[in-house]
Design a protein that fits this description.
The complex is a heterotrimer. Chain B contains 11 helices and no strands. By secondary structure, chain B is mainly alpha-helical. Chain B has helices at residues 20-30, 50-69, 77-90, 94-124, 126-141, 148-155, 159-183, 187-195, 200-238, 243-252, 256-284. The longest helix of chain B has 39 residues, at 200-238. Chain C has helices at 46-54, 93-97, 99-103, 108-121, 137-150, 167-183, 195-201, 235-255; strands at residues 2-11, 20-30, 35-39, 61-66, 69-70, 78-81, 155-159, 187-192, 204-208, 215-220. In chain C, helix 4 (108-121) packs across helix 5. The radius of gyration of chain C is 19 Å and the shape is globular. The chains are: A mainly alpha, B mainly alpha, C alpha/beta.
């Protein structure tokens, strides 16, 4: 997200906003027209989709499905957050831990986690547990690496200074490490969130038809295209909403420390660090 | 089109002085850690990188767990290796592998080409950035895989779905990083170029593009990771061909050994691709004060 | 000859901050081949004034004329040396020095020739293939200087060029600059924080007030050229320095409590 604010005056701001809205309107319009032209059962128009969306939002069906899906999401992400932050701090603080864990983390970062889904299924069956595990495995590595980067980016002179004042390990953590790393940790959580949602939906579309995934497949099978598209939009909207929330938190923390660039540099293996 | 980007690059990086390695060294020293070269001192005359030791320990643990625990889903490492070797030797893996790589090439290639173009546009022109940013952010956050049912409706069952998912996975990452790359070119350099009378074209080719290179290359490196992941997921979902499809079919048959074996191949592909882009990245940004490793 | 008449620059209000009057009507004349040093408290529009002469900012009132011609954009007769060096980090010393020439379409062979010449003149012979990050601050600024001189400007604008280096390097750079200027006379407009530097280099000193900035005072420096090595001990030097200090102090005090 752009942290800088536009320096334009008010009239250029008006222009920009109208361009934004205009582009959205243009897209909606072209979707509408295209769909009408194609006139296929599988390609609903913008208005049809919108109507289906509104309808679905008023039923318990959608919310029920969201509830089921998000159970796995919340649990999986929560666990990944705890574990990821813990490992990240461990690696950031103690060299030994870092050297030992690093190769695994590197592999986990590059590895397509969806490939692990069959194994998780074999291990934990088809229930909530396996869904939680999948979400966990999608999100863990990213959170860990960003947390580590957050610890790394803490100005060494601050640490030296704190130690010079005779701080104990615990005091070091409370005063400097946790706070200093927090912007990066938040960013890691946000990126992990993206992956968690991805894991949630992948699992459901792939193997376990529950929740929103099930809804999508159901509507797909029934050729109710508008409804299906609507659910897809809901899924995307959820992801966007959650990440926007995270971003607000992040921006406020980053603004305090204003050290994005140094963070990006410190996050040498931080896969995602440069993605935002 | 009026360039409303000049002199507005945010967050100028003040890189004078300390190098990244130096900074890290100090950071580590400050945290009370020693041992700069990351090798273990248990064998002072035999310098083994700790990462290798760690991995070896992990493999041994895997092997032992596989035999001892007797879990269906965790075959010992040696058997996995054997299965993998078998798959490669018999050539069974070749066709799916090539199919995957072909999709990857198409999708990633398109993502890079189009992504660079759009990234440059967005980086250069504030208005374009402002208008398109919501879509960029939305797509970055969205699970691309959720679009597969939609694509299925539009394209039917076709390879295009996989390529499209790979494309989408990588495209937005490239756009974002290229855009940031251009925006974070040291504003002092931009001003200097203006002072020496650079035209917009000259500024672009001689200052903005070279300056944007580190972040752009980092973006390409990240994108290949995302692309590979998208490739596997899409193939698993669409299950026509490719490594992902294989994973799915063997997974359905509960053939853990095969699944792990293919997983190893997939990891191998991911690592190799990532490595290749990284090499290119390092080559092109050797001058950078701080290499975004 | 550089003429500034009623030069005014206001930065518009933005994000709730009030508009900033960087330059509140500046009148100044710089004669050809004169070395003029601009002194003033930090935060006043020294850099803005420099940019105005350079043609990098648009003015809200007043005009800048060079030899009678109105200035609206950077031109071939002017070159600037920056406080933060502003070197291209991906280019080696040779390419950096030749940058201005490159922009003007000079052929590669000629660029290289000229660049070498100036690299030698600033004392960086042998470092042609080095990259900025391999050079110390002082060396980087020499590159900046060479780059500016390579385009053979009649006017040299310097924005606290030696501000970012340590004291010893600074002294060396100052002496080298004077030596270079002895060889090829240019009109120099030099912005600085330091009174000693201003007295060392300048033929005329101009004092600028806090924002809204105006020229407060002009002093001619009657010290011999070339400056003798122990010029700081010259009673005239000391007297002038004291005078400047009083002026600057008065400006700081009168604006203490104002928004900077």
């Amino acid at each position: 997200m752009s942290l800088e604010r536009g320096r334009g005056n008010d009239s250029s701001r008006l222009l920009k906003w109208s361009l934004r809205l205009g582009s959205f309107a243009a897209l909606a319009l072209s979707w509408e027209l295209l769909a009408r032209v194609v006139n296929s059962l599988l390609v609903p128009t913008f208005t049809e989709t919108l109507a289906a969306l509104v309808r679905l939002l008023m039923t318990s069906r959608l919310w029920g499905a969201l509830w089921i899906s998000n159970q796995a999401m919340a649990l999986g992400f929560g666990l990944a957050a705890i574990a990821g932050v813990a490992v990240g701090f461990l690696m950031g603080r103690w060299r030994a831990a870092e050297r030992f864990i690093e190769p695994y983390l590197s592999i986990l970062l590059v590895m397509p986690m969806s490939a692990v889904i069959p194994i998780i299924i074999m291990a934990t069956g088809l229930g909530l547990a396996s869904r939680v595990m999948v979400v966990f495995s999608f999100a863990f590595a990213t959170i860990a690496i960003n947390t580590r980067a957050g610890v790394r980016m803490i100005e060494p002179s601050w640490i030296e200074m704190t130690r010079a004042f005779g701080a104990t390990e615990r005091q070091l953590w409370l005063t400097i490490l946790l706070r200093g790393a927090s912007p990066a940790v938040l960013m890691g959580l946000r990126l992990g969130l993206i992956r968690a949602v991805s894991g949630m939906i992948t699992m459901e579309l792939l193997l376990i038809a529950v929740g929103v995934g099930r809804l999508i497949l159901h509507f797909q099978g029934n050729f109710e295209a508008a409804e299906m598209y609507a659910i897809v939009i809901v899924v995307i909207a959820e992801a966007v909403l959650l990440t926007q929330l995270c971003q607000r938190l992040e921006v406020s923390r980053f603004a305090k420390y204003s050290d994005r660039q140094r963070y990006a540099r410190a996050a040498s293996w931080a896969d995602q660090a440069v993605t935002e | 089109m009026m360039d409303d980007n000049a002199n507005m690059a945010p967050q100028a990086e003040q890189t004078q002085g300390r190098s990244d390695a130096e900074g890290e060294g100090r950071a580590k020293a400050a945290l009370g850690q020693s041992g700069e070269d990351g090798t273990l001192s248990a064998f002072p005359h035999l310098r083994i990188p700790a990462s290798w030791l760690s991995l070896t320990a992990g493999v041994i643990a895997w092997e032992l767990a596989g035999w001892w625990a007797g879990l269906g889903f965790l075959p010992p490492f040696s058997r996995v290796l054997w299965t993998a070797a078998g798959l490669i030797a018999s050539g069974q893996i070749v066709t799916p592998l090539l199919a995957s790589l072909l999709s990857l090439l198409a999708g990633y290639g398109a993502a890079v080409t189009l992504g660079l173009a759009l990234g440059v546009l967005m980086g250069r022109y504030r208005t374009v950035e402002f208008v398109l940013t919501p879509y960029l952010e939305a797509f970055l956050a969205a699970p691309k895989i959720a679009l597969v049912p939609v694509m299925y409706a539009v394209f039917g069952l076709s390879r295009l779905i996989q390529v499209a998912v790979i494309f989408l996975s990588g495209f937005f990452v490239v756009v974002l990083n290229t855009m940031r790359g251009i925006q974070t070119v040291e504003p002092a350099c931009v001003e200097m170029a203006h002072a020496f009378g650079a035209t917009e074209r000259q500024l672009f080719w001689k200052v903005l593009l070279p300056g944007a290179l580190p972040l752009t290359m980092a973006g390409l490196r990240l994108a290949i990771g995302h692309a590979v992941r998208g490739m596997v997921t899409a193939e698993m979902l669409v299950a026509l061909f490719g490594l992902g499809a294989l994973l799915r079919s063997y997974g359905a048959r509960f053939d853990a050994e095969k699944v792990f074996a293919i997983l190893l191949v997939v990891i191998g592909v991911a690592l190799v691709c990532s490595f290749m882009v990284q090499v290119a990245e390092r080559r092109m940004t050797r001058w950078a004060d701080t290499t975004l490793e | 000859m550089i003429e500034l008449r009623g030069v005014r620059k206001v930065y518009p209000s933005h994000d709730g901050h009030p508009p900033v009057i960087a330059l509140g009507g500046v009148d100044l004349t710089i004669q050809t081949q004169e070395i003029v040093c601009l002194l003033g408290p930090s935060g006043c529009g020294k850099t803005t004034l420099l940019k105005a002469i350079m043609g990098l900012v648009s003015l809200d009132a007043g005009e800048v004329r060079i030899d009678g011609q109105l200035v609206s954009a950077p031109g071939a007769d002017r070159a600037m040396v920056f406080q933060n060096f502003a070197l291209l980090p991906w280019a080696d010393v040779m390419t950096n020095v030749a940058f201005g020439l490159d922009l003007r379409g000079v052929s590669r062979a000629e660029r290289e020739l000229k660049a070498r010449e100036w690299i030698r003149a600033v004392g960086l012979e042998g470092f042609e293939r080095h990259y900025p990050r391999q050079l110390s601050g002082g060396m980087q600024q020499r590159v900046g200087l060479a780059r500016a001189l390579a385009v053979n400007p009649t006017i040299l604008l310097m924005d606290e060029p030696f501000g970012a280096v340590d004291a010893q390097t600074r002294r060396l750079l100052q002496e080298d600059l004077l030596a270079l200027l002895e060889h090829s006379r240019k009109t120099v407009f030099f912005v600085t924080h330091s009174m000693e530097e201003a007295l060392l280099l300048g033929g005329r000193l101009v004092l600028m007030t806090q924002r809204p900035s105006r020229i407060r005072d002009e002093t001619v420096v009657r010290l011999p050229r070339p400056r003798p090595p122990d010029v700081e001990k010259d009673p005239r030097f000391i007297e002038l320095k004291e005078y400047l200090w009083q002026q600057l102090r008065a400006m700081q005090i009168s604006t203490a409590g104002h928004d900077g």
